Amino acid sequence: MYTTETKSEEIFSNYVSLGDQWNRFRADVKADTLRNGTFHFEFEARIGNSFTSDVALDDISITKGRCPK
């Protein structure tokens, strides 16, 4: 994640297989230090050599407030 006032912040990384099912991930992003509220999100993925080495993103949403526990 990049903001206009900060450099980058990695909020999730994974280097092992998560299996062949959808996995949910939630993260809180602190916005209290921002002056203009501008965000820039980047999603980076690397796939392996196997035909089963897939990457997918689905149902991405950004909402105000803390993530539910």
TrEMBL record:
SUPFAM superfamilies: Concanavalin A-like lectins/glucanases. It comes from the Eukaryota. InterPro entries: ConA-like_dom_sf, MAM_dom. This is MAM domain-containing protein. GO terms for cellular component: membrane. Residues 19-69 form the MAM domain.
